[in-house]
């Protein structure tokens, strides 16, 4: 039997009133990967991740995380670490108090890891969390989520509020940290550049639907850039002088970059939002 | 989770403790002053106003607890987004809320219970002489009932914060709601906890003059403020004639506006004499003072029960609410 998937969605739908945030999403993400979830703002990324950590419930369809419904019980909560968008922390508690809180509320807490991580990123344990910079707050939130020793780390736009330098630093640190934890991770961003450097699995979400998903190497291997649409291949997106196709390679084709690939799918979704499945 | 709750509750708890110490010191001082009074018979005269004032102020304690301890508890987390941090620790949401409710309920019961006990103690000599601790206003500032009010208000505050998701509106709503409940319970519910005893009081001129007020409300002639010794009067019927029918407005009006002149003195003068001659009576419903403690426990149980129902709703709601 296969170990359960990190994320497994079947016809997952979430509506807020009349607005559909996710429509009939099917998604299978194996464990142990670093998954980049990319898409423009409002694509449904946050909704998918909030569903995954149980902060909200699906309108219809099903979603399992590590083989169980999200946030099923205390044991399952302990297996998933979540860093919410804007990385909320308690403004009136100090960094050290946040770590103490983590120890109180998580049986699997790794105090040494938390302390080391906080020291590594240069946080003063006596500092009130409300006075940290955005980047420092993100680091604290990541340390809190990671010191639970989760099997899966979920990060919702962890770098969105950071300036480019802090963003690169954060992402760089994150990659090494996730590797060290031996955990899987799902991180979302509206910028491919953020996740491209760390992820080995990509999910492109746009207009409430999953446009394409798979290991980065497979995606790059199955997509080509052609000068004109060749017969027998699926055209993802065509524009004058450039066509991105999916299918076996034909003579004259050039390899596609990850950015071109993502852009092709996003352009297709934006052009025909209602038709694309 | 208990330690986390206590840590987050530190500031509000400190504010509550300071208020408790100040109020407690005042009540101890008041109790000592009352006990230093050489003539106990004069106590009600000297302290009746103070007792009413204290009972009125004390009635605000649950509203304050609900608004300042209860409402922000969850609403602030939802407002600042920290629930997304809290709910992703290895503590299921329902337990997170249950522990918070339990810890803060205990604190609320403690504060209101201690203040209530101190006030009961301080007022005891006055109550012994005046015999009116069962009255609508004083009852809620004596005995064990205040702890129930506080727990109810606290849980109401927490649940309102959870449902409304905004701290300030939740505080305002809870404060108002608790005040309304504090007014409604003594007037609408409390008289009916046990079947009242009834007595028929003949309306002689003398009895009419003992009444606090006299008048006609929408066509039914009523007297107000009649006492039954050693009891809390919960209902006074309109003036009735010997055959049990309500006194006609016309007859009442004659006595009220144009009574035969007899030169009588007394609160209502000639009107009292005129009404006294009509062979009238009123039916009183009352709760004897010996039921005071039974009513205290009933009131406590009622509020704790309501708090329990609210808490159950909150625990159900927190599980299914969206983040």
UniProtKB/TrEMBL annotation, chain A:
Family annotation (CDD domains): ABC_DR_subfamily_A (cd03230)
GO function term, MF aspect, one: ATP binding
Entry-linked SMART domains: AAA
Domain of life according to the entry: Bacteria
Boundaries of every ABC transporter domain copy: 7-232
UniProt entry tagged with the keyword Repressor: no
Keyword Transport: yes
Protein keywords: ATP-binding, Nucleotide-binding, Transport
Sequence similarity: Belongs to the ABC transporter superfamily.
Protein name per the record: ABC-2 type transport system ATP-binding protein
Lineage: Bacteria, Bacillati, Actinomycetota, Actinomycetes, Micromonosporales
Automatic annotation (TrEMBL), chain B:
Keywords of the record: Membrane, Transmembrane, Transmembrane helix
Pfam families in UniProt: ABC2_membrane_2
Region forming the signal peptide: none
TM region positions: 51-75, 96-124, 144-164, 171-189, 294-318
Keyword Transmembrane helix: yes
Highest taxon above the source species: Bacteria
Name of the molecule in the record: ABC-2 family transporter protein
């Amino acid at each position: 039997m296969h170990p359960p998937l990190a994320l497994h969605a079947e016809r997952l739908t979430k509506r807020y009133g009349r607005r559909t945030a996710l429509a009939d999403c099917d998604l299978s993400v194996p464990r142990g990967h670093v998954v980049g979830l990319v898409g423009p703002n409002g694509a449904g990324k946050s909704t998918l991740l909030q569903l995954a950590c149980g902060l909200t419930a699906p309108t219809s369809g099903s979603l399992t995380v590590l083989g169980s419904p999200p946030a099923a019980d205390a044991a399952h909560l302990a297996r998933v670490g979540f860093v919410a968008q804007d990385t909320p922390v308690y403004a009136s508690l100090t960094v050290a108090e946040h770590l103490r809180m983590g120890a109180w509320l998580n049986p699997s807490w790794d105090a040494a890891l938390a302390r080391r991580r906080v020291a590594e990123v240069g946080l003063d344990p006596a500092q009130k969390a409300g006075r940290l910079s955005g980047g420092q707050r993100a680091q604290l939130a990541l340390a809190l989520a990671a010191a639970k020793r989760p099997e899966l780390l979920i990060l919702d736009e962890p770098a969105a509020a950071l300036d480019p330098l802090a963003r690169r630093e954060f992402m760089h640190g994150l990659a090494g940290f996730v590797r060290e934890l031996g955990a899987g991770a799902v991180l979302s961003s509206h910028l491919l550049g953020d996740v491209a450097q760390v992820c080995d699995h990509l999910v492109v979400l746009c207009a409430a639907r999953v446009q394409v998903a798979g290991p980065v190497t497979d995606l790059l291997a199955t997509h080509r850039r052609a000068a004109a649409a060749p017969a027998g291949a699926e055209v993802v997106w065509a524009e004058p002088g450039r066509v991105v196709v999916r299918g076996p390679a034909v003579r004259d084709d050039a390899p596609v970059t990850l950015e071109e690939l993502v852009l092709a799918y996003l352009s297709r979704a934006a052009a025909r939002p209602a038709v694309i499945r | 989770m208990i330690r986390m709750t206590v840590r987050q509750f530190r500031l509000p708890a400190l504010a509550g403790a300071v208020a408790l110490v100040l109020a407690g010191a005042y009540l101890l001082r008041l109790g000592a002053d009352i006990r230093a009074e050489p003539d106990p018979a004069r106590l009600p005269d000297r302290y009746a106003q103070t007792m009413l004032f204290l009972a009125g102020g004390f009635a605000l304690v649950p509203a304050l607890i609900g608004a300042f301890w209860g409402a922000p508890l969850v609403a602030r987390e939802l407002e600042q987004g920290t629930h997304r941090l809290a709910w992703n620790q290895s503590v299921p949401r329902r337990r997170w809320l249950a522990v918070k409710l339990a810890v803060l309920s205990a604190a609320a019961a403690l504060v209101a219970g201690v203040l209530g006990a101190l006030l009961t103690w301080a007022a005891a000599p006055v109550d012994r002489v005046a015999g009116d601790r069962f009255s609508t206003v004083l009852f809620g500032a004596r005995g064990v009932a205040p702890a129930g009010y506080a727990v109810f208000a606290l849980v109401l505050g927490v649940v309102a914060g959870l449902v409304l998701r905004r701290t300030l509106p939740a505080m305002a709503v809870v404060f108002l709601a608790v005040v309304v409940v504090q007014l409604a319970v003594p007037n609408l519910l409390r008289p009916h906890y046990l079947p009242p005893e009834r007595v028929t009081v003949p309306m002689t001129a003398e009895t009419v003059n003992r009444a606090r007020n006299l008048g006609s409300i929408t066509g039914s002639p009523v007297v107000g403020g009649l006492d039954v010794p050693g009891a809390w009067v919960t209902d006074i019927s309109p003036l009735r004639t010997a055959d049990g029918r309500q006194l006609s407005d016309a007859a009442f009006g004659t006595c009220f506006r144009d009574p035969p002149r007899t030169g009588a003195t007394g609160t209502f003068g000639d009107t009292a004499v005129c009404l006294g001659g009509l062979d009238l009576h009123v039916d009183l419903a009352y709760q004897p003072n010996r039921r005071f403690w039974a009513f205290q426990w009933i009131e406590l149980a009622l509020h704790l029960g309501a708090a329990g129902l609210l808490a159950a709703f909150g625990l159900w709601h927190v599980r299914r609410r969206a983040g």
